[in-house]
Design a protein that fits this description.
The structure holds 2 protein chains of 2 kinds. Chain A is of the alpha+beta class. Chain A contains 7 helices and 13 strands. Chain A has helices spanning about 10-25, 170-175, 245-250, 260-265, 275-290, 300-315, 340-345; strands at about 55-60, 65-75, 85-90, 95-105, 110-120, 130-135, 135-140, 150-155, 155-165, 200-210, 220-230, 235-240, 320. In chain A, strands 3, 4, 5, 6, 7, 11, 12 and 13 form an 8-stranded antiparallel β-sheet that branches. The two termini of chain A are about 40 Å apart. Chain B is mainly α. Chain B is built from 24 helices and no strands. Chain B has helices at about 15-20, 35-50, 55-65, 70-90, 90-105, 110-125, 130-140, 145-160, 160-175, 180-190, 195-210, 215-230, 235-245, 250-265, 265-280, 285-295, 300-320, 325-335, 340-350, 355-370, 370-380, 390-405, 405-420, 430-435. Chain B is globular, with a radius of gyration of 22 Å. The N and C termini of chain B lie far apart (about 65 Å). Mean pLDDT of chain B is about 85; it is low at about 1-35. Classes of the chains: A alpha+beta, B mainly alpha. Chains A and B meet through helix 1, strand 2, strand 3, helix 2 and strand 12 of A and helix 1, helix 2, helix 4, helix 5 and helix 6 of B.
Amino acid sequence: MRRAILGALALTALAAAALAAVVSGGPRPSAAADHVDAPGLMPPGGNFQLDLTDLYAWRARNGNTVLAMNVNGLTAPGKRPVFASGVPAVAKTKGVTYWFRVDNDGDAVADVDLGVTFSKPNASGVQTMTVTRNGKVILTGRTSPGRGVTVNRQGQVRAYAGLRDDPFFFDLGGFVDILSQEAGKSFLGCTGARTDFFAGKNVSAIVLELPPSLLTRSGSTQIGVWGATTVGSRQIDRMGRPAINTVFIPQNPFEKTKAYRKNQFNATQPKNDRARWRSEVVDSLQVLFSLNDASGDDKADDAMKIAGLADVLLPDVLTFDTAKSDGFLNGRRLADDVIDAELGLITEGAVKTDCVSRNDRRFLASFPYVAAPH
Amino acid sequence: MTRVRRRISFGLAALAGAVAVVLGAAWPGGVAPARSPAAVDVALLVEQLSAGSSRSVVRRLERAVAARPDARSLALLGLGYQQLARETGDAAWLTRAREALRRAAHADPTDPVAVAGLAQLAVTLHRFRAALSLARRALALEPGNALALGALGDAQLASGRHADAFRTYDRLAARGPSVGAYARVATARRLRGDPAGALDAMELALEAGSGIPEQEAWALARYGTLLAGRGRLQEAERAYRRSLELAPGYVHGEAGLARVAAARGRFAEAEARLERVVARLPLPEYAVLLGDIRARAGRAREARRAYALVSTLERLLEANGVRTELATALFDLDHGVRPRRALARARSAYRAAPSLAAADAVAWGLYRTGRCAEARTWSQRALALGTKDGLFLFHRGLIERCLGGAAAGRPWFRRALAAEPTFSLRWAPLAEKLAS
């Protein structure tokens, strides 16, 4: 960028540029580089590729079951994130799997594991995807990194993975400030429409549609579903119903001083939820139930209600009767206002809405259902 | 529901800290998430550098410092300057980075961003001992700080503490995907004699992306160089071209294309490209390569001009605080300039930072001064991890040939060429001759 010219001044400039060159590093022509020139500035941690934002389960028109999970939350329009294929350590790379775990006998232990794995992206960003059911490959296909949709089919199974509009809608800012007294910050008591934090943002969606018989056990139409991501054998994230970890596990807006335990929650299994996390859920519910004390709520039955509710919320599994009409709390459709439904439940009806009631984009009538990306 | 905070931060500075607390993001490695404003501030900086021009980001940071010259604002400005130095090659930014970071650390010696920034700077200056202690201090202030982990691993690697460095890189990579983390894993794998694994890690680094265009261009150029080393010139060329598409005029992409051209015997093209590189970013090793290409084309006088530039550049680097003994020693040994002095410099470099490369330089110096038996011991040290480095293996070949005759050297030359068929414009032809 600077051409060397004669004179002391030029030499200084040259020295400066050479010094910068050391900083800028870059691949060494010789292998004998004595230090690494990799960039120092890195994101502070966290893995949005493995971070589940939402999980859905509903009935397709033909009676099949649709399962959907989203990752790469809050992707800005124009960005083309990919699904993780692996996480490298010096010794070896560990494979990444995106899981739909399905319990069909009510013990919160998976009976059907649907695993989705991805290859590295090719030059145009397309990845191959492989879907397994209990370890056996049931479908292979390709991802849809842009606006175009590739529907992968094998028998009665359909699969899509790619960039979509984030179907979730919620006034997150109003939740963060939920206990704020400042006018307009909290959504408590809102009457007019508030801001959908997730409007205009994209996610990477994995959508599977399959006959319920691949999920249920004979004689039953009921399942419990949760999503999980793993690196090798290590579980990085998991979720069933919306916002359980967000709302109930510290720290949260009601328990700002408690130790951070969201990581531990993400690493544990639903079958242990009641033993490990019930007391945290109860603590949060006590705060939430007190929201209506001033307005004359009879507190006498709070403890009993809280206990009952804690046992509904845990284990964190999205329960779904594949033969019944769908909609939260029976599964979860894309359009369900799950936040309003949960708010009513967990505040004894004191809070009914965040005043955000629909997604910013219309959902598709057919597979893959989730709206096109921004 | 869990949602990553990282992407939320942009344009929502006021919310960022609170959001970080609320969202149960997936934090591999069990790292406590960004409750600390330090990580939130760095996240914001990364996000801003991804979204806009680095210059305007830095201007904003300068205004923030002017309004309130506290430690954190100064430290972030220091990091911004470091990024500009990477991007533009204009070291006015680097000098400013050093100033800003020192002022930051002076204002608050417990600010992890300031201390980690200084650690990174120490690595850049090849002050590895200082880098080690600064990085450790930063990590004590903020466990898991990415900048500090990167600097710590780099300094450990350069100090010959490979097992420690690999553990540090593993910790870094487990925190989450990034070009900076995965590229370091690639380097570690290369040193362990796992070139295929190094390529795999670089591919994952590219997959992880960075958001910061310069970092992605860097990663593509680095990937190209790993491919070129393996003789996969066509793929290497593609990677370098993609790097240039991302960052037009990017010197490391351009230098890569020059290497590919030279490896294909297209010396005129290689020379033209390198002249552009050297005019823009006078890095000594690119000047060396330019000289070597001219020498190879039989133009000794012009080659000498490029070499003369090398020593000027290295002296100037030294004047600016960078330790250059190792590079100087290697250059002198390669070009037959006062080998005894070069050997002394190599030893001094090894004392300062006992890296594999420094051990190889000592071996090479001992060989060039006729002490082949001692040279073998040092070469063994350089190759202790099984590194498949063409140059290291070539040096060993010459040493074995010196000790045991042509037949003793041959397998080493073959190994060098098998590992990296185009390892050196200067030495690969000799290796080919001695291998057969």
